Amino acid sequence: LQVSVWTAGWRWKGTGTRSTHRKEEGTAVAQAVGARLKELKEKEEESVLLEALVPTARLPVSPPRSPAPRLPVALRICTLVCRSWGDRPQLCQVTCGVGRAEAPVRHGAMLPQSLDSSLQQWGVVASEQRQALATRLREAAEATMAALLAAEAELTPQQRGGARAHTDLLGVDFLLACVDDTLELVALSTNSQHCLETCLLVESMGRDIGEPHGDLPRLLAEVMLHRAQCHLVEGKDIVLIGAGGVSKSFVWEAARGYGLKIHLVESDPDHFAAGLVETFLPYDSREHRRDEEHAQRVTELLHSRGVRPHACLSYWDDCVVLAALVCQRLGLPGNPPAAVRVAKQKSRTHQHLQGCQHGHPPPSAFAVPCRRLRSHGDVEQAAGAVPFPAVAKLEFGAGGVGVKLVESRSQCHAHAARLWRDLRDDADHPGIGLGWGNAMLLMEYVPGTEHDVDLVVFRGRLMGAWVSDNGPTRLPAFLETAACLPSCLPPDRQAQLVRAALQCCLACGLQDGVFNVELKLGPAGPRLLEINPRMGGFYLRDWIREVYGPDLLLAAVLVALGVPPILPSRPSPRTHLAGVMCLGSEHGGALGVRDGEGGGGGGMAALVRLHERGLVRLNRLFEETAGAGEYEEPYLSVGCQGATRAEACVRLLGLCQALGIDSPRYPVEYFLSHFK
Ligand SMILES: Nc1ncnc2c1ncn2[C@@H]1O[C@H](COP(=O)(O)OP(=O)(O)O)[C@@H](O)[C@H]1O
Ligand SMILES: [Mg+2]
């Protein structure tokens, strides 16, 4: 019913003249606007605001204990929101100011108090009602910042005030209004300092009475340190060894976003990333038994092209040893090549760990009996040391190709014979380590549930760890079917996995980097399957960013630069993801890969549309079907999210049924049934 007229602009900081009028008083309003307009400075981008005045709610006050008259009071709610991990707005602090209803309640004019006390004082007796209001406030404050960040993203650096100008902290003030007998939150304005000051005052007042620190100092420190680290990596020259396939397409855009100068060493001279990097250095390193020689060549190549890198790293399994060798030659931070070699070769990892007998428990506790198989002659001896059922697989394998459950010596011979016939060198199946030869190993079958632990380690210190769960694999090959993040495991069991993964890495001599450790968790605790001495593959980087916020790629770059990455000290999941893998052989028809995108069943086109609307998470692993028959790899990961794991699984199952991903031969419901 009332309107207010005031001047806005940075010069005023909310202190400009303000007048209030009844809505009907058109002439008075016009006069006030005219008067304010004359005060404006043209160059300062100032304006006159004509706003509806939202009346504060007059709440039913609780029966007065004293007969003294009650004054009508107004409540101003002050919130502070930060740009948290993954550019997501997160509410840091809420506090209230209570004042006389007839004048606006200003920041800094009174000592702040909590929302809960204020509402109680106002007569909101039911605690559920207060809780519901607090939840709505969180949503509203975070949505306000999201809207502002979205608008800011559209601006040019010049409009924003500079290439590095970002809003990382935002104060949002709210008023409680009463609409049709219900309390409504109304956002009044945003600010950059008032709410921060008030919220910091609340923190220090808590200290006065011995309250523990709230989340505010930690969240603010993380925001600022993360921003500082983004500035640190900007413009750095990074040598990347191995571009990887479509599954790593995110790298090029992310690198551009961080302002990295990528100098890419890649075996495929026609790689699609050639035009997306600062320097493209085609160099054929596919024969990895000659990595020492390659390392020398690569350093010469870098030298001749005038590249003087600040860091060198690889996220591509085949290239991790070469990257370590190049780091060593250039004197850059990295792991000792010997450590990476131990981790890269599966039987050596386990045999090395068997010998690590110190510690409580010693790393040997996580190792599993296994033997190398270089020829059929080795099978007999291996079978004497490894009980059946066992797993026969490639020493340097990746992507689960060639892994098989064998029940007897003869099955082991048969599998080895087929594998040695079909998979001889890299050209037979690129990207699964055949550049190191096709030696195999026989390993004891480990029972239990399967998990990935993605670790960030800096100079031997654990900086961050994330545990995800895998559903049942498809036997007798071990194709991954389903996964979820966060893990279903209780914290103590996750902690066992993280500690085991870290101990295994350290015992192998891996001290610096982002590692992906695969383990199984059985009744007797965690057992190691393998260490991937690189960033987790498939959907892992995407999912961890979505659920927890931090970026494994940035962490890997920071560690490679010799900088300890700042990560959430108290990671908390924002959502739940569940996903399934799709196979060309099973789903090519339904999803229309065989006929190209959008052809065939048209499922793929539908998925892409849903992905663009943020309703599913697609992670392409290959352009199309990868490998054939028993050597097939999944080509696509389809994920759904939900507020709970159950919700994510229900959505995913529905989607899989609708698109024909689910079938009697590919029972998605069964795959997801492990995530309880
Ligand atoms: N010893 C084992 N016991 C049980 N399952 C195993 C064993 N080794 C491998 N697997 C299964 O096979 C999958 C692939 O094996 P892994 O060694 O991780 O090869 P890759 O490097 O190809 O991923 C694992 O994720 C797991 O499901
Ligand atoms: Mg694996």
Architecture blueprint of SSEs:
Layout (H helix, E strand, L loop, with lengths): L1 E7 L9 E5 L3 H14 L7 E7 L19 E12 L3 E13 L14 H8 L4 H28 L2 H4 L8 E11 L2 E10 L2 H15 L7 H18 L3 E5 L8 H9 L2 E6 L12 E4 L8 H14 L6 E3 L6 H11 L6 H8 L1 H9 L15 E4 L2 H10 L4 E5 L9 E3 L2 H14 L17 E5 L4 E10 L2 E10 L11 E4 L5 H18 L4 E10 L2 E8 L7 H8 L4 H10 L14 E7 L1 H8 L11 H10 L4 E4 L15 E7 L2 H15 L8 H5 L4
Parallel strand pairs: 8-9, 8-11, 9-10
Antiparallel strand pairs: 1-2, 1-3, 4-5, 4-6, 6-7, 12-15, 13-14, 13-15, 16-17, 16-19, 17-18, 18-21, 19-20, 21-23, 22-23
Helix pairs in contact: 8-9, 9-10, 10-11, 12-13
Please, could you describe this protein's structure?
This protein is of the alpha+beta class. It has 4 domains: 1-53, no CATH class; 54-61 and 71-229, 2-Layer Sandwich (D-amino Acid Aminotransferase, Chain A, domain 1); 237-332, Rossmann fold (3-Layer(aba) Sandwich), CATH 3.40.50; 433-672, 2-Layer Sandwich (D-amino Acid Aminotransferase, Chain A, domain 1), CATH 3.30.470.20. 35% of the residues lie in helices and 24% in strands. It is built from 20 helices and 23 strands. The strands form 5 sheets. The protein has an 8-stranded antiparallel sheet, sandwiched between helices. A hairpin with a 3-residue loop joins strand 4 and strand 5 (88-100). Helix 10 packs across helix 11. It starts with a strand and ends with a helix. Mean pLDDT is 92; it is low at 594-600. The chain binds adenosine-5'-diphosphate and magnesium ion (MG).
